[in-house]
Specification:
With 380 residues, the chain is mainly beta. It has three helices and 31 strands. It has a 19-stranded parallel β-sheet that branches. The protein has a ten-stranded parallel β-sheet with strand order 5-7-9-12-15-18-21-24-27-29. A two-stranded antiparallel sheet has the order 1-31. Strand 2 (29-31), helix 2 (37-46) and strand 3 (52-54) form a beta-alpha-beta unit. The chain is globular. The two termini are 16 Å apart.
Length: 380
C-alpha cells in the first residue's frame, strides 16, 4: 500500500470517527506494475478486502498460480489481459471476491475454494479456452459461486466446469432450499465444443458442467454449442445432490450427432423451459435420467435427497424435440421423477443479485436474501 493511500484512509477514519458515523473509507485501486505472475501476486498481497487490483492490459505466461487468500475479498480485473496460467481463490466469509475481464488460454484457469458460509465469489466477462480435452474452472466446498457472461471453449470430451461439492457424501445430509442462494450459479455463458466440426460433427460427450460429491448447481440462461449438462453419478460414487437447469439454449450444428442435451445421473432437482436451436431436424437428443448402479433404491440415485429419502425430480416445459428418457427401472416416471412442474417451486432471482445489484429472493420459502453492501466501502 503506498503512502498516499494510507494517509487518505487514516484521514477518512479520523473524520468519520469524530462525527460518530460508522467508520468506512473508500476501497483502494491497486495497479499491478506488470503482467508477470510475481507482479500480480505482489499487488494482491498489498491489497485489503474491498480493494480492486488491476492488470495493465497485457499478455503473460505465469508458470504458477496467482493466489487470492481467504483473508481478503478483492476484485482482480484483468483489463482484457491474455494469460496462460491460473487464479486460485480461497473465498472470504464476509467480502466477495471477483475475477473479471480476462482471456485465459489454458486449462484449469480459475479455482474456487470455500464453504456454504463463504461470501459469494464471481467470475465474469472472461474468455477461457482449453484447446483439447479440458477442465477450465474448478469449484469446491459447496460454496456460493457465480459464473456469468463468460465464453468457454474446449475440444471433444471436455468438462468445462467441475463443481466438486464437498468431495464426500456430507452434503447429502444437509437441507437444500429449492430456488435458494447457496449454490453454484452458472448463467448467461456461452459454451462451445471446438471439436464439433466436419461431417458429421461429433459431440463426444462434451460437457459445459460436471457436478460431483453432493454438489448443488443452478445452470440457467446459457447457450451451449454441441455441449451437454452432466450431473455425475457413476456406480458406487457420491454424485450430484441438487440441480436446477432451466432457460438454456442447446445449439446443434448441421450433421451433428449430439445424443444428450443432459445426462443426469444422481440427485434431484428441476429441469424446465430448455430449448433446442440450430439443426432442428438433426438427431434425437434427450434429457437422460440415468442410473449406473443396481438395486432400488440405489444410493445417490435420481430422486434421492437428504439422508437418501425420496425426493423426486421434476421435468417440464422443455422443447418437444428434447425427449425425456431413462435407461433403468431404478428411475421411473411418477415415482423418481415427474413430468410436471414442481409444486411451490420458485427460481432464485434472475439476473443474480451480484449482477443486478438488487435484493435476492429465494425459492419456495419466499424469504429474501440480504442486500449487497456497497462495493467501494470497507469498515475498520
Amino acid at each position: 500500500m503506498n503512502t498516499s493511500t494510507l494517509k487518505i484512509r487514516r484521514l477518512a477514519f479520523l473524520l468519520l470517527g469524530t462525527v460518530g458515523v460508522t467508520n468506512y473509507s473508500e476501497a483502494a485501486a491497486i495497479n499491478a506494475s506488470g503482467c508477470s505472475q510475481s507482479d500480480v501476486q505482489s499487488a494482491i498481497d498489498r491489497a485489503a478486502s474491498g480493494d480492486t487490483v488491476s492488470l495493465p492490459s497485457c499478455s503473460a505466461d505465469w508458470g504458477s498460480k496467482v493466489s487470492i487468500p481467504g483473508s481478503k475479498g478483492i476484485t482482480l480485473d484483468g483489463k482484457g489481459s491474455t494469460i496462460t496460467g491460473a487464479v486460485d481463490v480461497t473465498q472470504n466469509d464476509a467480502t466477495s471476491t471477483r475475477v473479471t475481464n480476462f482471456n485465459f488460454t489454458s486449462p484449469k484457469s480459475v479455482y474456487f475454494h470455500g464453504s456454504p458460509s463463504s461470501a459469494t465469489a464471481r467470475l465474469d466477462h472472461s474468455k477461457i479456452s482449453g484447446g483439447g480435452t479440458a477442465i477450465l474452472i474448478e469449484v469446491e466446498g459447496n460454496a456460493p459461486v457465480l459464473i456469468d457472461h463468460n465464453e468457454l471453449s474446449g475440444g471433444g470430451a471436455s468438462e468445462m466446469i467441475h463443481n466438486y461439492g464437498t468431495w464426500n457424501e456430507s452434503g447429502w445430509n444437509d437441507d437444500v432450499t429449492p430456488g435458494g442462494p447457496t449454490m453454484v450459479f452458472i448463467e448467461d455463458n456461452t459454451f462451445t465444443n471446438t471439436g464439433a466440426s466436419g461431417s458429421p460433427a461429433y459431440f463426444w460427450g462434451t460437457s459445459a458442467v460436471q457436478s460431483y460429491y453432493s454438489a448443488r448447481t443452478v445452470f440457467r440462461h446459457n447457450t451451449l454449442n454441441m455441449t451437454q449438462v452432466d450431473q455425475h453419478g457413476t456406480a458406487g460414487m457420491v454424485g450430484a445432490r441438487w440441480w436446477e437447469i432451466y432457460e438454456n439454449t442447446f445449439n446443434v450444428v448441421e450433421n451433428g450427432n449430439q445424443s444428450n442435451y443432459m445426462a443426469i445421473r444422481a440427485g434431484s432437482g428441476v429441469i424446465f423451459n430448455n430449448h433446442k436451436t440450430g439443426a432442428q431436424n438433426q438427431g434425437a437428443g434427450a434429457i437422460e435420467l440415468v442410473e449406473e448402479d443396481s438395486g432400488y433404491p440405489a444410493s445417490y440415485q435420481i430422486g434421492r435427497g437428504k439422508n437418501q429419502s425420496l425426493d423426486p425430480a421434476y421435468v417440464w416445459g422443455n422443447d418437444p424435440s428434447m425427449r425425456v428418457g431413462s435407461n433403468s427401472s431404478n428411475v421411473q416416471d411418477s415415482r423418481d421423477f415427474y413430468q410436471s412442474a414442481k409444486p411451490n417451486y420458485k427460481p432464485y432471482t434472475y439476473p443474480h443479485p451480484m449482477i443486478s445489484g438488487t435484493t435476492g429472493s429465494t425459492g419456495s420459502t419466499g424469504s429474501t436474501g440480504s442486500i449487497l453492501p456497497p462495493s467501494n466501502l470497507r469498515a475498520y
